[in-house]
Amino acid sequence: MNGAGPEVSFTRLGDAALAVGTPGARALLASLRDSPLPGVQEVVPALHLLTLLFDPLRLDPADLEAALRARLAALDLSAPAGVGAARTLAVPVRFGGRGGPDLAWCAAHAGLSQAAFVEALCGAPLEVAFLGFTPGFAFLTGLPPGLRMPRLDAPRERVPAGSVALGGPWAGVYPSATPGGWRIVGRTDLRLFDLSRPEPVPWRAGDRVRFEAVPAGQPESA
Q1: Residues 20, 59: one domain?
Q2: CA 167 to mean position of chain CA atoms
Q3: Considering the domain boundaries, does residue 80 fall inside one?
Q4: What's the pLDDT score for residue 2?
Q5: What average pLDDT is seen over the chain?
Q6: Is residue 77 classed as helix, strand or coil in its secondary structure?
Q7: Same domain, 138 and 55
């Protein structure tokens, strides 16, 4: 289906932002990163949605909408959507134990041993779909169907920072201690939100992510 077809919606948000809803959001994001539109200051991705922040003194929203329709029409949405300059982030994880209280349940639900479950999870081709929920939290897509876990019936009141968790079709890592209803299978010491760094968050939409199992007792930096 052509990217500029009826599945595309445009919503103006004030005089300096435009939301574009389309199944081709990831492909459009890649195109805008590779070849930015003049006057567009920032592109914020969500699931099947991009919000473009633009300078209203340089760009009329009607012209921006027309440019985006033309850009979508030129895209091949049947091709895999790499989101420009994709990076790969390795996340060292200690699976199970006190840091991964739901690992045994998840492995049994998948019909695997715990070791086989961890191996399958570490081999999954994960990718950052978008960030949300709390600063630094990335919704990771790419879980095979057998590794997709139902959420807890009742969320935990506090999930420790660094918890690696599975919920529905998503995997994620909690950057800070918050309530949460996903199944916790491990923990990482990687800091995913740090205002003292030039880039407080280490990943962005389109980045690839790989979990790496750390043997018990071994430092994660090893």
Answers
A1: yes
A2: 13
A3: no
A4: 41
A5: 89
A6: coil
A7: no
Strand extents, DSSP E, the chain? 9-12, 17-21, 40-46, 49-54, 88-95, 126-131, 138-141, 156-159, 163-167, 170-173, 178-180, 183-187, 208-213
pTM summary value: 0.74
CATH number, domain containing residue 186: 2.40.100.10
Do 125 and 96 share a domain, yes or no? yes
Q: Which residue has the tokens 């990831």?
A: 26
Pairing of the two strands 88-95 and 178-180: unpaired
Interatomic CA distance for residues 204 and 83, integer angstroms = 10
| Integer angstrom CA distances of residue 135 from 95, 139, 203 | 24, 12, 11
What does the pLDDT read at residue 33? 86
Structure tokens at 35: 């070849």
User: Reduced to 3 DSSP states, what percent helix, strand and coil does the chain have, rounded to the nearest 5?
Assistant: 20, 30, 50
Could you tell me if 76 and 2 are in contact, meaning their C-beta atoms sit under 8 angstroms apart? no
97 is a domain residue: yes
Q: State the pLDDT at residue 133.
A: 86
- Are the CB atoms for 91 and 84 separated by under 8 Å? no
Give the structural domain span for 38: 9-74
Is pLDDT of 4 > 50?
Answer: no
| Residue linked to tokens 């959420």 | 151
Does some domain include residue 155? Answer: yes
3-state secondary structure of 91: strand
4-13, 27-36, 102-111: least confidently modelled range: 4-13
Residue 45 · residue 19 · CB < 8 Å: no
